[in-house]
What we know:
By secondary structure, this protein is of the alpha+beta class. The protein folds into four domains: 3-92 and 157-196, no CATH class; 244-438, no CATH class; 440-469; 484-559. The chain contains 22 helices and 16 strands. The strands form five sheets. Strands 1, 2, 3, 4 and 6 form a five-stranded antiparallel β-sheet that branches. A hairpin with a 4-residue loop joins β9 (290-293) and β10 (298-300).
Amino acid sequence: MTDTSSAIARNAQILRFLMKYRNAGVFTGLDIDAADLDDAAFDTSDEADGKPEAFVDDLEALGPTFIKIGQVLSTRPDMVPPAYLAALERMQDDVAPLPFEVIQAAVEEALDVRISKMFDSFDETPLGCASLAQVHRATLRDGRKVAVKVQRPGIVEQIRGDLDTLARLAGGVDRVTDIGRRIRFADWVGEFRRTLLAELDYRVEAENLDRFDAHFEAYPALFVPKPVWDLTRQRVLTMELVEGTKVTDITGLMRTERDMAPLATALLHGYLDQVFVYGEIHADPHPGNLLLTRDGRLALLDLGMVAHVPPRTRERLLKLLFAAVDGRGEQVAAEGIAMGTRLEDFDEARYYRDVAQLIARYAARSGATGQSEGRMMLDLARLATACGLRTAPEMSLLGKTLLHLESVVEALDPELDMKRVVEDHLQNMMRQRLRKSLSPANLASEMMEMQELVRDAPRKLSNLLSLLSENRLQMRVTGLEESHLLDSLHKIGNRIAAGVVTAALILASALIMDNPEGPRLFGYPAIALLLFLTGAGLGIAIVLSALLGDRRARPDEQSGPH
Length: 562
């Protein structure tokens, strides 16, 4: 099969999938009340007809691009209803291993050297297989044990083709549907494209390993394997081999023999620091990516998916979470609005009321009966969407990360009060930020800015008074040339002009239709017939343009506070 026919077949396969689930409710059913959030979060009644499970099965069948899409959708409760979120959580990324000859050829091509030259041994049986890569155990010439992550050949080209198809479809959906204008699928696909292509460059993951290792220096209980840079390329990653027990396999006897609470506390503190101090979110800290090592440390694996949080968003997320643990619902709502985008139908009064109720329930519960921080963040995102507020994706991602951490903490120490640990560490972080803001360097910088303001104020006030006294004060309003009003006026003017020309042509053809002289066509004067057909064609074009081209203006959206 040629490349062109393969691309057409692949596009048809994707289109069939999208058409199959266009009315299945994947992106509907989000308009729920705050009072229903606790039940909705765990409601899987929609699964009775098998749609969510079938949806996940079809995603897996479409290959690595759509498996990754499913993983990302599982972090977006503002886009996907609870039943589908529950099904996406169970998505499997286990595939049959490639023959070792294929892996050997890929490694040797990437490293430009034979495996026998660089490795003392290279296990042909993989430690794990996924849709993007598989991992093999190996030993270096100096005796170090390593894990070699090898990208499946041809996977990048397939993913790029799938992403191009999705980008075209998303742009069309955004233009012609209300849900597209609300969610902005094209923006979401663009962000997903950047994240996934970065994940396919294993040099980026190696940098993440080094950076997380440096950031966790204050937490010796946390361990991040170091990459072997000499044997790391874009499609091959070599790193320290970590051996231990999966967090999910920790038994009650192991918890009895060893106090796991310090490990769980260090993990929470380390991840909170990653988000609010360093501005990074490990998007996939589920229990399968954490190992309890033989020396009693907690090893973090698979750092390919790391989201970067801008400083301003980081500050707002910290204020939001701190206000939530303190029970201040109105401030939580205000920070959510500041981070989000208000759509045309945003109901601000309902949003403030429902957020206040949600935070009040969260703050009133504690210990084992309390609502988790991750669930609270995801409920905030879902509630915002129901009220017409498009939330920042970092909010849902942070919520999903905290939920994963909750399951890890549950496996390590079921008795640990995660809410108390998070609250204590947030308070400590706020105290550190306050001390930093009162440092001599910051105070000196602010004093210099104040000095500049005081020095320039008299001159600026004098200029303003001069303009007022001479009647030369002017105000300029910008943006009108880009408004919907001018677009509509131009469209109306063009339609009127075209209508006048059409009427003139038809009238002229009628006046000369009775002229017996001159050339004739089909028994009619040729000039009159030509004018009539031209006018009729213009008239039909105007009608079609009005029916097909006119659409409702893009909803008025505002980012940040009023």
